């Protein structure tokens, strides 16, 4: 775990991250020793008649090599779950995540489970205005001489890189942003998109940086957002706008259209519309878990209009007698998108022309129920001057939830909602790793409530301390993340009250923590080859934090590392006297106590087919050398023929 990361970081080079990306993309151009075969690539390009050029330009800044080095290192933090919060009814089954800690570490953790899965990223990073509080913070942990050796700088440049600490120069800002964007790119799906808010102070540098990280060909737009219609004094010009920079990661990027006023196939006394099926087409929702959305409509087949649809009612009558239940294409019970109250409010069962809910018969004789959808779409424009996009709108929205001004310049909901409308599908993962006042979580919940989606959010926020003289501090908040988490709770309550939507209003809470120097020293001095050499007490407990047992810390850290995410279900399997933690095809030995009898019990369960594992992950500090030897010997020679790999972690 930590020792493994520490030892790996001792030999990291700045190019390691990019080389790993190349190995994954084009493994055929690496030899068995892991060395890149440039000659083989050049030969392939020549035979394909691909022209190569040495012309072009490159973004250079003080700290770039060091930024690449930071990208390549592993995180030496652990993931601490908030067990009390996560056990609450609203959060226990939530797939939303809130992580408190440095976003550079958080992104590295998330790569283990969410690489290539995030559909939309929205971030509002520091603008580096000189008054927004941004300074580059890095304890480095080594000397300029170390930088020369690790990063390949000369002594003068190494000294200047270390001098970036506490600075707010363009180079400091780029050094800060570069590794975070490189890691964010790996999290995005092939059709994913990233939106970055910025102003004139760094927009040119950000554009050049994103061209390098995401590729010039993946630039989508530089959107102007009219955030201050009255204009903000800036030199000789009153500036009315900020920017949202938009990039994809491949040519598969999917940018959705937004609603527009347009021509519709049908018209009634209200205006144009199109028919949208009222059945919820999301397979996650059905009669079993949404019984309140499973009920019959009754159609009047004789009330047919020229457009081919008929009136419906929630009550069976002599005229409305054709029963319609929500069923999917396989004939299984599904559910509606609306409940009976919303249906009743949109229903005129005596007149299909005036009613907003109607039915139409299918070719096979069955029936579908539809809403009259009056929305259509258009490509999103590059200037966003809509009502609700102003900075003061964001301030007002936060004030309405908290009853006070607890946050400076929060992003308005309309801005983030527009990004989500453009950049997400109904079930997308949305990431914000500069989450601040948690506008992104609020926007995700509101959009889900509006369209019945099941989008999930992952928010990351460093626990910046609040000024003791501020309004928020006086209200009991001590750090920005506390405001963000409370905003999610308050916004969820407001959305539920306004809409009644049955969506995920909860979130699971985790903190990133770094072991103490003393713990690190003990990690390094432990010798797994000496049987019986253990620290006083068990080593797992040294990772315990604020009521969270060390076992839960290790499990959370490993589950996200191993691809199971932070919302995975872990089950306990009884061996002899030891309880093995199991998730999917992986078993985890974290706590001390595993002995020879437990190993034999594990082997018996595997050979009897009672347990199906592909790997067993073992916290090396908790298992004596002799027992570790038994595990490896027995799990590689099972009579069933299956092989369970034993992975030691330290």
TrEMBL record:
Keyword Methyltransferase carried by entry: yes
EC number annotated for this UniProt entry: 2.1.1.72
Name the UniProt key words of this record, in alphabetical order.
Methyltransferase, S-adenosyl-L-methionine, Transferase
Protein known as: Adenine-specific DNA-methyltransferase
Q: Which family does it belong to?
A: Belongs to the N(4)/N(6)-methyltransferase family.
List, for all copies, the residue spans of the domain called DNA methylase N-4/N-6: 118-459
State whether keyword S-adenosyl-L-methionine applies: yes
Gene Ontology molecular function: DNA binding; N-methyltransferase activity; site-specific DNA-methyltransferase (adenine-specific) activity
Pfam short name (any one) = N6_N4_Mtase
User: What range(s) does the Type III R-M EcoP15I C-terminal domain occupy?
Assistant: 550-640
Q: Which enzyme class?
A: transferase
The signal peptide stretch is none
An example Gene Ontology biological process = methylation
